[in-house]
Design brief:
Structural class of chain A: alpha/beta
Number of domains of chain A: 2
Strand order of the largest sheet of chain A: 2-8-7-6-5-3-4
CATH topology of the largest domain in chain A: Aspartate Aminotransferase, domain 2
Strand content of chain A: 15-25%
Distance between the termini of chain A: 37 Å
Largest sheet of chain A: 7 strands, mixed
Largest interface: A-B, 55 and 55 residues
CATH architecture of the largest domain in chain A: 3-Layer(aba) Sandwich
Number of helices of chain A: 11
Order of helices and strands of chain A: HEHHEHEHEEHEEEHHHEEHEEEH
Shape of chain A: globular
Number of strands of chain A: 13
Oligomer: homodimer
Chain lengths: ~325, ~325
Amino acid sequence: MSMVPHGGDLAAAEARWGRPAKGWLDLSTGINPVPYPVPPIDPAAWQRLPQHDRLRALLQTARSCYAAPADAPIVAAPGTQILIQLLPRLRPGARVAILGPTYGEHAACWAAEGARVTIVGSLEEAAAAEVVVLVNPNNPDGRIVRVERLLASAGDLAARGGLLVVDEAFAEVTPEVSIAAEAGRPGLLILRSFGKFFGLAGIRLGFALGAAAEVERLARWLGPWAVPGPAIEIGIAALSNRGWQNETRARLAADAERLTALLLAHGFAYRGGTALFRLVEHPEAARVWDRLGRAGILVRPFPDRPALLRFGLPADEAGFARLAAALG
Amino acid sequence: MSMVPHGGDLAAAEARWGRPAKGWLDLSTGINPVPYPVPPIDPAAWQRLPQHDRLRALLQTARSCYAAPADAPIVAAPGTQILIQLLPRLRPGARVAILGPTYGEHAACWAAEGARVTIVGSLEEAAAAEVVVLVNPNNPDGRIVRVERLLASAGDLAARGGLLVVDEAFAEVTPEVSIAAEAGRPGLLILRSFGKFFGLAGIRLGFALGAAAEVERLARWLGPWAVPGPAIEIGIAALSNRGWQNETRARLAADAERLTALLLAHGFAYRGGTALFRLVEHPEAARVWDRLGRAGILVRPFPDRPALLRFGLPADEAGFARLAAALG
């Protein structure tokens, strides 16, 4: 089991507060609470080994959805997490700078494989590193590093055999932030997550795009059938459905604004976020967290920054009303 | 993409023979063609991150189904293949003896990670190895190495820091062959596959059982959410359904006997197998393979042993009739 704290563990919440009568309102993740509707799944997708032609179709659909070049090297994995676990093998023992604070698994996975990890506050502080990792837009604070700055950094790193890892786990809500159109450049590796924007985190589907040197190694380490047949079919359907994606982007943006307004009205200060989550500060954040937990509402605390909380989006009116009542 | 030849790639078959009017009768794998019926899946299993308490329930169900000790270290993975990809990291650069001929990915994965791989014909020939790998019962010839012999080998290997890997991908049809009751002994690592016996290869679910030293490292490399939520739920349902398992064992045994009789009646010699596949020899095997392919029936050839073919089981009367007609 990972030692990194995460949202979304309802069993742990029940161990603390008991099972709420109304069920959990889980706002502890950055997962879209209104998922892409899972289409009927051809029984063959469950029964057969995943088919290579369908996997190729998934990869082509992903390139197109992410506006990556049509020939960009890309690999699919059963979740982005397993790609994060594999990244340290691309540069064993490297000096790694991670733009923090951010998603904790990056530092944990590099350190577990013997890398020398430093958490830095800006790309400028990462000048001595062989590998630079950032989440863009960042989790939890929504910090955005612009594409031109990333390209300069990737170029610098490539010139000395290094690597810039850009984790775009939340980039669907702000596609203009994405560097996926540059996928294939040496020194640049991009991670994309399916589950968050499409609201299907249980499916486990993620992608890495980059130069052939890195992507082919990741693909070889994952082996020939790493992505389940149903995940391939659901991925093709969802990644090609631009209508749903556009509507969802608009809905998430509106709901995120509404969430911010609600939190500001209850004494929180806005500290950043994306349309999938809001990071807020409160002088009594720990007490608010506990009060919400006792009301069956799970939000994300940060043990080393106790004044902060991260709120995901409620799915609907009832969710907003329940949150408002519990905050009141 | 893997360079190891495998069954089950229908797109490759269509590139060669075109799409058959009646659809493919795919007998090229060892997957049960009558799958465990996929139960209705709670939408939460798709939407949420896989829950640790459900994963623990899956692991406990698997231990019980495999008759492993209740406290045996065990890890679940998205398919056994990805475990095979990870095994070389347990003993980097080791001298590895693989009991062959067998499933090609074992040798390929160890060799790709820099191990010194020898294919041996018996455990006696493996005396100098640090790691010994066998599939038991073996694919494709059904060879069985008895538990006592395996325990002696694991003990020898453990005494010098080595490892015996027993891939029980097809052991459900002959549970008496399994060494899972010994899981936890040092020097012994057991792989179990969900997809073959349960007929759900698309789901991607496999397990490794063994000593904590090895299992904990595999779990760390896979990360916290390697198995999709739906796979966890389907796995719990199927692995705990002893009635379905017993009926399936009996049906597979009967169908395998019937398949053998059909093949013997058409000039094949029986060379081994399990109840999930039959290995047969024919002086004109390459021509038979091509004739079957043109008739829309896919079976498994062996490029380096051209007189052999491996047949999986037809699902039903229509499948047996179609195979009989094409062989006639």
